[in-house]
Amino acid sequence: MAQHLDRRRLLTMSLASVGAGILTGMTIRPGAASAADEFDQDLPPVPGMSGDRRANEMWYQFDDITLYHRIPEVEQAFVEMHAVFGDGFVKLIYDTWLELSASPGYSAEFAEFVAPIRAPLQALSRVQLGVFDAFYHPQSPRLIDAFSFFGQGLLFDPRRAEFELEVHMMEGDPTLSYHLWHGFLRAMMVLDIDRARWARIDPLIGLAWALQSIAEPEAREINPPLPRETVGRLRRIWLPRTSRQTDEAFRAWPYPAEHDSVRA
User: Are 138 and 197 in contact (CB under 8 A)?
Assistant: First the structure.
């Protein structure tokens, strides 16, 4: 293999996993090897990189095709959502979720609001889950670790120096990005777009938010991990949460409700 990872190959394989049925609920036998498991041997060392190699690569590819160098499918999805909701549509979707989610039975009303952007939401779901599936089995505990490393700021990737954000993490202190992602995720779920998959990932997003709120990682430095006890406590709080409980948790701002008690 070439000395660098072929992004086009990764993307092709990730989207191929969609066609193979991974994103539509295909069951893989417990203990069965995923095609993504073969990636370990294909990931060459990156000088100066710190943290889990596979998690670094997953977040690098995720950001590359959805943010820094959007692939046409993602770019078209953003164009279509802008055409419906105009400037600031990302924040609008979140603000609408925040307003409506105060009511326990808000799903139908929120679904009506986001129904005009079903197609672009389907595209975003397909691409995002495709990247996850290129690196991890959907139920792999290593995917939980990838979000945990992300939230703590433990993934230092010198390939991102041009963006002055070598650490894979959400920007801002405090950051609203986890909340924005949750708003989009809930929009997908109320429209029944990969609902079961996002219901499992939503608590991981919350876990990363909680960890970052406490760790307060630096964006351009190698950060120390949080105490194992702190990480374990937050995992026990976030991972069992239902969609409704996660909704309630994300209504908190700027930090999760458990922030002060866990931090202490």
Answer: yes
DSSP-assigned letters across all residues of 2-57: -SS--HHHHHHHHHHHHHHTGGGT----TTPPPGGGGGGGG----TT-BS-HHHHH
Instruction: Give the amino acid at 208.
Output: A
Of 170, 83, 67, 68, the C-alpha closest to 120 is: 83
Closest C-alpha among 76, 53, 73, 66 to residue 180? 66
Q: What integer pLDDT is reported at residue 192 of this predicted model?
A: 98
Determine the residue type at 206: G
Sequence-separated (6 or more) residues with CB below 8 Å from residue 123:
73, 74, 76, 77
What dihedral angle (degrees, nearest 10) is formed by the CA atoms of 150, 172, 127, 244?
Answer: 80
- Token readout for 50 is 């710190």
**Local structure of residue 1 (DSSP, 8 states):** -
Give the SS3 label for residue 156. strand
Region of residue 51 (left: phi > 0; alpha: psi -120 to 50; beta: else): left
Locate tokens 């002055």: which residue? 164
Distance, in Å, from the CA atom of 201 to the CA atom of 49, rounded to the nearest integer, reads: 26
Location of structure tokens 């609408």: 96
Here the tokens at position 146 are: 């990838």
pLDDT (tens digit per residue) in 17-43: 333 332 222 222 233 334 444 456 679
Tokens of 39: 């990636």
- Residue 69: closest CA among 162, 182, 188, 181: 162
Helices assigned H by DSSP within 103-242: 107-114, 118-135, 141-152, 177-190, 195-215, 228-238
The 10 Å Cβ neighbour count of residue 181 is: 21
**Environment class of 87 (CB within 10 Å of its CB; exposed 0-12, middle 13-18, buried 19+):** exposed
Q: Model pTM? A: 0.86
